[in-house]
Amino acid sequence: MGLRGPGAKPVAKASKASPPAAPERHPWQRKALNRAGRVIAFLESLPVTAGYMAGRPMKMRLWQRRIINAIYRSGSNRRRVVRTALLTMPRKNGKTGLAAGLALCHLCGPEAEQRGQVYSAAADKNQAAIMFREMKAIIEAVPWMGARVIVRDFHKELQDSITGTTYNALSSDSKTKHGFSASFIVYDELAQAPNRDLFDVLTTSTAARAEPLTVIISTQNADPHHVMSELVNYGRQVNEGSVVDPTFHATIYAAPMDADPWSEATWHACNPALGDFRSLDEMRTSAMQAQRIPARESAFRLLYLNQPVEADDRFIHAADWLACKREIDRSALLGKRCWAGLDLSSTRDLSALVLYFPDDGGAILPFFWCPADELDKREDQDRVPYRTWARAGLIEATPGRSINKRAIAFRLAEVAQLYRLQAVAYDRWSIEELRRIMADEGIRLPLQEFGQGFKDFSPALAALETAILDRRIGHDGNPILTWNLANAVVDTDPAGNRKLSKERARERIDGLVAMAMSLGQHAKEPALPPPAGLRVAVFSL
Question: Is domain 25-252 annotated with CATH 3.40.50.300?
Fold first, then answer.
């Protein structure tokens, strides 16, 4: 494995008494190879570290060879012509593996230079760590790399002990962005960068290098003013010949905006690895879901077809939600198992509790609270009939100008007495006051903190969507919950994970958040064993 630690040193030299070991001859050191050929030979000497092909050596496909040949072609002075290379394609076409391989090629392979500086850049720390982990996994799987490359996990740093070249993983939110002298830069998912600051700092740091190279590997961005969009437009001009710039190379795999997004011919045209190491079955499944879920259609077109589309604000079609409407017999639910989601407001807004009964057709029971003195203001601001809802008993109007968490605590205690409450998933925001009241009143409930980020909410939304689409959920048409659902906006991260965005929502979504948490918490529960004495009948034909 790689050498470790902030003070890690290279492997000690052999003693004088020992005969010198013959230097290892690498595949890319064959004399017959040109520059691009050496890079390809280096990449093909590396192992695949994840997926069903893990452990096998990388095999450059014809389309990958074309990219490498274009980037690493040499001019008459035997120097590399290309200084900036753009590779934009849909996700899951091997971008991360290729990017990691190229970074290693410039760290300790045929493109390494003395005391070079190699950087990978990403939108945030988590994304930046992906590239580092991939490079580290390769180093640990290749003995000669493990013997000469120093690994510093804490700083996400690698150092080649032979050339002195270093590698660092950077993110747009890192504080230090100056003092670089980059020899090689790979920017992973530039489309997700919040601004162009890190990109500009890195690309302007190459002046002291004889043959610097910047490689951008990313899907597209819907904003025409984003730096990624500028590079794609420039790359198209170069490819069309309207701009002459031999130092810029662009490989663009993207479905035309007027192409049929559900045609497999369209998929194959913009996914060069489809049917190879990119799963066609997974593509078909995602397409089927995207046709039924509005928020997933835009994500499908962006991430799977590489089309620069704006995100669809809708969470799910109203028709699919209304198709789940049915009469809910509350008395029939007494004593039944349920999971709850609780979304508390800070002081004056809407608070929501939603119960989910998975054993009873997925029945949904919502509860809402709003300060009584704020009903008129809320009605004016949100343009919905808060007072009518309060008179109908759909909202509990608590006395005063701020939300009365004591009333919520007592309602929770009542719920726990009426139903078999398994868990109450909550957002830790504003929960402490409620906890204190419950402690004072002797109310004990199975509270479970539920994260509001992509990690927890993406599976929760998936569980809710599946239940709605498969008609495994039932609601009585509560107008507040239906309004909340119509207001929903979904945020998507580079990996395709999703969460509800309160900041970008059209209006209130508190009930939807609570409902998603209730189904998400239930989905976390282990499956119950079959009842004792259950006999399974086996039939033979």
Answer: yes
